[in-house]
Amino acid sequence: MFACRYRAVLFAMLALAGCNKEDPPPPPASATPAAPPASAAPAAPPAPATPAPPAAPQRDAVFSVEELDQMLAPLALYPDSLLAQVLMATTYPGNVADAVAWSKAHPDANGDAAVKQVADQPWDPSVQSLVAFPQVLATLGQDPAWVQRVGDAFLAQPDAVMDSVQRLRRKAQAAGNLESNQQQKVSVKPAAAPAPEPAPAPQGGTTTVVQQAAPAQTIVIEPTNPQVVYVPSYNPTVVYGTWSYPSYPPPYYPPPPAYPVATALAGGLAFGAGIAIANSLWGDCDWNNHDVDINVNRYNNLNVNRQLNANQRNWNHNPVYRNGVPYRDQVSRQQFDRRLPGSEQRNAFRGDDPARAAERARARDSLTQRGIAAPATTNREARDRVQSADRERARENLQQRGLDGSGARDRVQNADRERARENLQQRGLDGGGARDRVQSADRDRARQTLEQRTGERPAANNQQARQRAQNAAQQRQQAPRNQQARQQVRQQHASTQGARNNAFAGARNPSHTQLAANRGQVSRQAASRPQASRAAASRPVQRPAHAPRGGGGGGRRR
Question: How far apart are CA 100 and CA 286, in angstroms?
Fold first, then answer.
């Protein structure tokens, strides 16, 4: 018994010793797993991975953040339900333009009654619901291009559009222009946290969960009374405080003067008259999923002829009401393309069969080989061919008349000259002297005109003309001498002319002034003498008597 136990223990010790010799010692613990030995058996193949679901089509960023904030600034402070209706309606810019025209033609229509009046219009229900709010349509009607850009942004970048609205609302709230009042209720709710994403599992078998940062809060705007909706009016350059993008200023579409809010709008938000509704607003913003939800009950109550199923709670764009307006991004064009399946086969009914195309090609080659030109591919080519054919026919006509194309013009001109020469001969003028006679008549008329202007007849011969030229030269030579003589006479006359009788004459010659004063004094003294002395000093003056004129009296009185 003891021997059996001894042999068993001996065999176990030998086995342990053999294992220590064959296997290397275990490596020290490390974060990086050790590579398996070369002699180890190949590892089993990993289990096949579950195929991932097909990813949604990748959308390009059609608009930048600055452009989105710029175009959404006039709409971001609308109540959520009204904003959802506007975003859906802008994807149909043609229908919006028709609704704006209808609202202008019916200025008193609003609320649910207005929506029922347009139930038979070929518009999308989201556009029909906007006729309940004439002020909103008046704003959208001021810039149709802006409406189309907003709709294209909502189709191509719905997540970015929703984020832009929340970003603008936070700016308005920070500026103190967004708060609850009698017309609206502003509430702040935490946004739903996204599901945690598992990190890649290490080979040790453990799983690490990556927790993302806490999301921003969501600002919700609702009517204070769900049955009465007030449309806010505001200036984006004022209500959002300092604008962050000076290169992208927000547009401002003021309300028309017909609305009372137009006169009360000064700063911040202004509200006009409330619109009583019941079912007109059947959409709402889903901020967590960046989408628009539909209240099926309200929708069906209003749209009797276009009912929805109870499970159709998410809005989907309907390209039928796009009315041919092109989509801006490639993904929307592919997603909302209205081409029906199998429409490519219609080409066969239009004569685009490959076999018939090959037959037409062979027929064209056969015509070319026969010298017949292929049909014209453009209007210009056809016009050139017609003009070329007309020229060919004209040349053929000339040849038939005995005129080649090159000398036809010369022959016609020669014929005209021959007819003119015959006319001259019939009038008694030979062809050679007609030109000379005409030139002589022209010279006679020129000579008569010259005589009328100058008063003298032209020279009869060369000697007379030469004599006239010499006389004219002598006159030109004597002209400077005559000028000098006239200047000398003018100077002499000026020197002999006496001084002018003016107030300053005495200043130049004081002696004359003294003589004039003495003559005045002598005359005054003579006038002051007595009568007797003046009679003695006076001398009698005898004048000859004049005979009376005429035969009658009327003589001079003495």
Answer: 27
